[in-house]
Every structure is written in C-alpha cells, then in structure tokens.
From TrEMBL:
UniProt keyword list: Carbohydrate metabolism
Domain of life: Eukaryota
InterPro entries per UniProt: Glycosyl_hydrolases_36 (IPR008811)
Organism: Hevea brasiliensis (Para rubber tree)
UniProt cross-references to Pfam families, sorted A to Z: Raffinose_syn
Protein name listed in UniProt: Uncharacterized protein
C-alpha cells in the first residue's frame, strides 16, 4: 500500500490555507453570487523528520502556482534546502 499523500489547499480570494490528507474532512466553502474562488492543490514534500514544504508560489498573483519557474529539493548529510525561482511581482 502506498503512502498517503498530504496536500496544501490554498484559496486565492479568501487567502485560506488547509492541510489535507485522504482521510481529511471535506472543505466546505460558500461562494457568494457574482464572486469566485480559486483552489490550488499543492502536494507536500517531507524534507526531514520535522520539516515539510509545499510550493504555493506567489499568493498575490491570480495563478500563484503558475509563477513557479524552477523548483527543486537538495539534500546532503548536513542539510536539506529548496531552490525556488518565480516570476511576477513579489511585492
């Protein structure tokens, strides 16, 4: 049996962040008339015993995940690091 994957779900308009697993309850969200919400589902990578990372991107952009240009994890005996290159206005 495979490992249960964890995801971060980011809601762009309300700026909410949820941690989910296959056993999580459903996310309930009410969307008002003439409005919208964007849900980004981002897999979580376990980097160490107590460290996890999910590349959401630039949250001030309409398509936050689309701002990610390069992404990678690097591990050595001494440390773990993440390289993330994005495009867009980071302000």
């Amino acid at each position: 049996m495979g490992k249960a994957e964890e995801y971060v779900v980011y809601l762009n308009q309300t700026e909410e962040l949820f941690l989910t697993t296959p056993k999580s309850d459903a996310i309930e969200e009410t969307i008002q008339p003439s409005s919208f919400e964007l849900f980004s589902f981002v897999p979580i990578k376990k980097l160490g015993a107590n460290t996890k990372f999910a590349p959401i991107g630039l949250t001030n952009m309409f398509n936050s995940g689309g701002t990610i240009q390069e992404f990678g994890y690097f591990r050595s005996a001494a440390e773990t690091s993440v390289k993330l290159k994005v495009k867009g206005d980071a302000s």
